[in-house]
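@channel sequence for tomorrow's demo:
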Amino acid sequence: MQDQTTPIPVNTPTAQTDIKGELEEARLPLDPRTIIQACLLVLASLAIAYVAADIILPLVLAFVLKLLFQPVMRQLERLRLPRSIAALLMIFVFFGLFVGLGAAVAGPATEWATRLPEALPRLQERLSVLSRPIQTFQSFMQQIGAGGGANVDILGAAFRGTQHFASGFFETILILYFLLVSGDTFLRRMVEILPRFSDKRQVVTLSQQIEENISIYLATITVMNGLVGLATGLTMWATGLGDPILWGVVAFALNFVPIIGPFFGVALFAFAGLLQFDTMLAAFLPAGLYLVIHLIEGEIVTPMLLARRFTLNPVLIILALIFWFWLWGAPGAILAVPMLAILKIICDGVGPLNNIGRFLEA
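structure tokens (generated this afternoon):
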């Protein structure tokens, strides 16, 4: 559903000219032992990412958010605002909006959830083809309402999930704050450690490429998703579905997950329409209008803003979404494309990895 050629800027010609000139003759190593060692390193890294997800996921999320905030931080520094105060300001604004939107949609989402068990019989009549799955779901909902022990188990699981989310949320804020305050400290230390000038220049160039391109991508996608959410909210209000803030936030969040997110959004709006309206035309109108909004954004506006020549292979995007969703859940799906783009930038800038970079292209 999401534009399969949604571009991610991963190249800037001026930034890569010098590096490619120096490493033009470099090739991927053909030594079987080196290839086996590299594969084992990748598998070990993925195993650590799975086992230590509680630590690594907040770290990766904070790093990606740092890339998003870095251009604004530089502007605040030009205004002679101390980095510590600028970092606090950025965090308060961003996460304040995040918490505010969550509080705004909590009420409408709860109301729709309470309507669901009563509306299932009506929905079952309208979609007789799906009668068996609906009956199973309805039986599950009735067991939740009748069984006291089940309620205790579900509340305990919900509490544990809330506690886990709150812990990761705090870690992300803490790591993000110190990353923003540190600025380019780690980059300077790495440049000091490297022995050769060519290596120093390569690291600086790659760092600048990653920061510039990923920040442009994230900022553009965030603004476009915000406009999609605004248009979706107004459209749902105009069609009579109601709760424009809820549906706008849902569309905004789903659009961060390419292809899979908008596909799920179409199904969600169709389901909500069937619960809300009597006629089939009115029921599927919200989903159809949401699809139109998404196609305009994904097929026309976003490719025009990010330039079509900077693309990632859509098949690899799908595989990355599925894999990171399995590994880290919804945050992993959101981070999948930025991490794939960062990998592409690194492979394009390091000679022996150029072939991998070409493989990642559309």
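heads up for whoever presents: The CA atoms of residues 162 and 209 lie 37 Å apart.
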